[in-house]
Design a protein that fits this description.
The protein has about 230 residues and is α/β, with parallel strands linked by helices. Helix content is about 30%, strand content about 30%. Bound molecules: adenosine-5'-triphosphate (ATP) and magnesium ion. Magnesium ion (MG) binds next to helix 1.
Length: about 230
């Protein structure tokens, strides 16, 4: 099998689990419940690119102003605030999602990518779209992933998972890679885990791996089990 070009995930310990990083270009899903580390993962991914002189583009679907992102980031020492507005561009698409059609949203995302020309794109969280485009959610996801695949970039979508489902099935089938984040109550404490569910063309570690989240490093895959 021909080797893909790969780019580092930016998450300490994860590249070693996935034959060096995300295939470039590709579309990935990072899915998990509330507070499992999806946004932190996204920031590690973009910060890694920024450090290497790559351009990043972060779309939020939550109508959060840039101030929110700066405040969020200030809890993590590993994120350099100087990247914002420079190596990492921030774009709120919450209002477009509420007021405009699917086609307009897709066009907006495409135009923004054409303007910024990023190597790394994040849409956090993509699952919010399902609340607005209920009936056409699958079609929208299919068109979005196709649009993203046309760019020379790795795109990372984050997906919220409710406690009763293990992963967002409707997105999983469309993307190249799926990484699951989870939190499990064990012996009275909450432990966090990361699992690579799939990565196209990649020999990867399977099973849940314990992670820690720290201010200085973000998400770190602990080495105890591989
Ligand atoms: N400074 C910090 N040091 C250590 N851990 C932190 C710190 N800040 C946040 N965390 C941990 O990171 C988790 C939050 O991660 P994050 O915001 O990336 O989750 P998320 O999956 O995006 O959540 P949401 O569903 O709310 O969007 C918290 O639950 C907390 O455990
Ligand atoms: Mg989040």
């Amino acid at each position: 099998m021909p080797e893909f070009r790969r780019i580092s995930t930016g998450v300490k310990g994860l590249d070693e689990m996935v034959s060096g990083g995300f295939p470039f270009p590709s579309v990935a899903l990072v899915a998990g419940g509330a507070g499992t580390g999806k946004t932190t993962f996204s920031m590690s991914f973009l910060t890694e690119g920024a450090r290497n002189g790559e351009q990043g583009l972060f779309f939020t679907t939550l109508s959060e102003p840039t101030q929110w992102m700066l405040r969020y980031s200030s809890q993590f020492d590993f994120i350099d605030k100087d990247y914002f507005g420079n190596e990492i561009k921030y774009q709120d698409i919450g209002l477009i999602l509420q007021k405009q059609s699917q086609e307009e949203l897709l066009d907006f995302i495409d135009d923004k990518i054409a303007e910024v020309m990023p190597q790394r794109v994040v849409i956090d969280p993509i699952t919010v779209v399902g609340n607005f485009f209920e009936e056409d959610y699958r079609t929208f996801l299919f068109e979005l992933v196709n649009l993203l695949k046309n760019w020379q970039a790795v795109s990372l979508l984050t997906g919220e998972v409710s406690p009763e489902e293990s992963y967002p099935a409707e997105i999983t089938y469309a993307v190249d890679s799926v990484i699951l984040l989870s939190m499990i109550e064990e012996e009275g404490s909450r432990r966090k885990y990361l699992e690579v569910l799939k990565m196209r063309g990649t020999d990867h570690t399977t099973g849940r791996q314990p992670i820690s989240i720290t201010s200085s490093e973000g998400i770190v895959v602990l080495k105890s089990r591989f």
